[in-house]
Amino acid sequence: xxxxxxxxxxxxxxxxxxxxxxxxxxxxxxYQDPCNVSRNGGCGKDAREIIQYLCEDxxxxxxxxxxxxxxxxxxxxxxxxxxxxxxxxxxxxxxADEIRATGASICFTPCHNCYDQIRDLSKExxxxxxxxxxxxxxxxxxxxxxxxxxxEEDEEE
Amino acid sequence: xxxxxxxxxxxxxxxxxxxxxxxxxxxxxICAHCGxxxxxxxxxxxxxxxxxxxxxxxxxKVLEAFKKKDxxxxxxxxxxxxxxxxxxxxxxxxxxxxxxxxxxxxxxSTGRGLCVSQGKVPENLVKTIESYYEYxxxxxxxxxxxxxxxxxxxxxxxxxxxxxxxxxxxxGANLLYTVNAREPKFYPMDISQAAxxxxxxxxxxxxxxxxxxxxxxxxxxxxxxAAGYVSQLVRDAAEELEVKRVAITE
Lengths: 157, 250
Fold this sequence. Notes:
The complex is a heterodimer of chains A (157) and B (250).
Chain A: E1 2-3, H1 4-13, E2 29-31, H2 44-54, H3 77-80, H4 85-91, H5 93-102, E3 106-108, H6 112-124, E4 130-132, H7 134-141, H8 152-156
Parallel strand pairs in A: 2-3, 3-4
Chain B: H1 9-19, H2 22-30, H3 42-46, H4 55-68, H5 74-86, H6 93-97, H7 104-116, H8 123-135, H9 143-160, E1 175-178, H10 182-186, H11 189-201, E2 205-206, H12 217-221, H13 224-241, E3 245-248
């Protein structure tokens, strides 16, 4: 069993993927460590390795890594919805304050729960940030060899 | 939210007895109420330092449940329910600061298991458990819709990368890639993005037509029987396809 974060770090380390980090060069980025990926899954270091290849202006939240705060969306809190929603949004205040303090315009995270929660927090606490996954950032920043790209005539078909 | 109001004291006692073990008893009894866990909890800090939200106090609610056994009543069950489902995300941050390393997440999860014995589980988690049993994933995605989504994403991807594919049920592949059922349901582009990464990295990979949802909301619900069933689905897929590794989505 391997988490995508560890797998992606392997690909980058082995030179199997190449990223153009100037793509996000003018945007400040921060990273949300999902509790079950970093603290409980041990993948925090792998995420930092990917970040080296991906961002020029990266600011850590404080605290981060193994000591990161939960975003408030974990443990099934997102799908519970209904009467649990208010508690979830309120409990995310710590995270919202942390994100704001980084001054970042992009917060990325490799977890669907964190992703949905931080998008909600951005609305509720007016953070004005874009929330992305690693894959979404890769789609923008991956360097694709010319010979693999669709040719002009293919595009017109 | 409360689906059933009546309590079943015998089922509660049985759940307590089933869940009792030395490690849990030690944790529940050793807490010195030193309060070091208070400032580690996002619920406590985000709610004007409400003492009810200190992890040790939340753990104490589960300890009370263990002491009460068949002496529980509706009011207590209601309190336990909101504590274990509504006031803790089982993030384990408090454990990092506890001098005894008490695992509040396991205690909360145990408390959820006690609620399961009373059928007192958040409605939306119950729905996902039913869906795992019926469809093999939490989002009621049928096999037909799943395959259609994979094929659709493959076509989208090929417009840019004509050589890229999304292999399905490829026996002996190096890597089986599993996703969150929210992807085919709400974020299908996640799938084509992953396929793009694997294609460019030259990975020998596959998706499975069955056992492809790597979430386990039954585990979060505290329903261990269902949680075991859900993890087995992915394990079965990996064995069936004889893959070397199983990767889980972001």
